[in-house]
Design brief:
The chain has helices at residues 3-25, 39-53, 69-77, 92-100, 173-186, 188-200, 209-217, 228-236, 275-285, 288-296, 333-338, 340-352, and strands spanning 30-35, 56-61, 86-89, 104-105, 127-139, 165-168, 204-206, 223-227, 241-244, 260-269. By secondary structure, the protein is α/β, with parallel strands linked by helices.
Length: 356
């Protein structure tokens, strides 16, 4: 062999050897997490898990505009060869739909024992924690008289709100979930009437719940439908907004109507690469410590574990089924998941029309 050939072989082999050694150097165990929770809040709690367990967390996040949809699609596409260990979703109906497709592995988490039965899947494939409420946000300068502000979700179909309402695109995230839940609680026809009223009132569709809250804070809209975490961001910034928990005292005409509280959920992905690490991460996320941290962070998520004592801002209230003061919408999430496709088909057709 010539010196020249030896030199060429060395140039070829050295990068290969380096790559191999570099790959072997990552002996640190890891857990792969797909998270629809906002990155800024998830990243504040995950370092504690790594410190306590030695497991590194590699996280893939969803985007605000397509919240919870992209990760849902990836999990379905990866079913034959899962890459994800734990799915942290930010709304429950997509979780139930993934459960029905067999994408989750049952796990009896000891950390879930204090939670109410409604926060646990019957087959132990998912657990609910750290809720947000679907609320009405109003601009207090545009609507200074508290008595004139909407009190019920159904108030927004009244013609007096024409041209004054904003909501996120109803194909995504908690806006889509709220629609399916209303189909279940009100019945399909009444729910359709409500959304027809919003369309007739020229409700403006924006890219996400955050943009709804920001638009109300900036006086672009008088009223918006959004989540408590996005609304509280405007409150914390000192913008002229108020949060209304709709139907907080219930409704005589629709006795199951109340404020919709939507939890985060966590689940182990079936046949995941690291089930041991997945179990540890599930236990960590369901811990009282994490619910308290999420409640006292800027996201102000609402604890579902009745043992959690957290300092919540005065604008945030707990649901009545978790010891709070606001009537929670009595929705059957399983039946709402059954109505998902019907609700989505209707909303796509309704809000694709030119608004008049």
């Amino acid at each position: 062999m010539t010196h020249k050939n030896s030199s060429l072989q060395a140039q070829f082999l050295l990068p290969v050897i380096f790559f191999f050694l570099a790959g072997c150097s990552h002996s640190e165990p890891r857990v792969v997490l797909y998270s629809a929770q906002d990155q800024e809040f998830a990243e504040k709690v995950l370092p504690d898990f790594t410190r306590d367990t030695g497991f590194r967390v590699d996280t893939k996040y969803d985007t605000e505009a397509t919240k919870s949809v992209n990760l849902y699609t990836e999990l379905v596409n990866e079913k034959a060869r899962p890459r994800c260990d734990v799915h942290w979703n930010n709304e429950i109906l997509a979780t139930i739909r993934l459960q029905r497709q067999g994408l989750y592995q049952p796990y009896d988490s000891p950390a879930a024992s204090p939670y109410p039965a409604s926060a646990k899947a019957a087959d132990k494939t998912w657990y609910a924690f750290a809720a947000r409420a679907r609320i009405i946000i109003v601009n207090t300068e545009l609507l200074p008289n508290e008595a004139e502000r909407p009190k019920s979700l159904l108030d927004l179909a009244d013609p007096r709100w024409k041209g004054k309402i904003a909501m996120a695109k109803p194909q995504f995230g908690t806006t889509a979930t709220q629609a399916a839940c209303l189909f279940e609680v009100l019945g399909a026809e009444k729910a359709k009437d409500f959304y027809k009223g919003l369309e007739k009132n020229q409700a403006q569709l924006v890219s996400g719940n955050k943009q709804v809250a920001e638009g109300v804070g900036a006086k672009q809209y008088a009223v918006g439908l959004t989540d408590t975490d996005d609304a509280m961001d405007e409150v914390d910034k000192g913008h002229p907004v108020a949060i209304i928990f709709p139907d907080r005292d219930g409704s005589k005409e629709y006795p199951r109507l109340g404020t919709l509280f939507l939890p985060n959920t966590v689940a182990v992905v079936r046949d995941c690469p690291n089930p041991q690490g997945a179990h540890k991460l599930i236990d960590f996320l369901l811990s009282s410590k994490v619910e308290k941290e999420l409640a006292e962070s800027e996201s102000h998520q609402i604890p579902l574990n009745p043992q959690v004592e957290a300092s919540l801002p005065k604008e945030i209230e707990r649901p009545d089924n978790a010891g709070g003061t606001v009537k929670s919408m009595k929705v059957d999430f399983e039946k709402a998941a059954d109505l998902w496709d019907e609700a989505q088909a209707f909303l796509r057709e309704m809000f694709a029309r030119p608004q008049s």
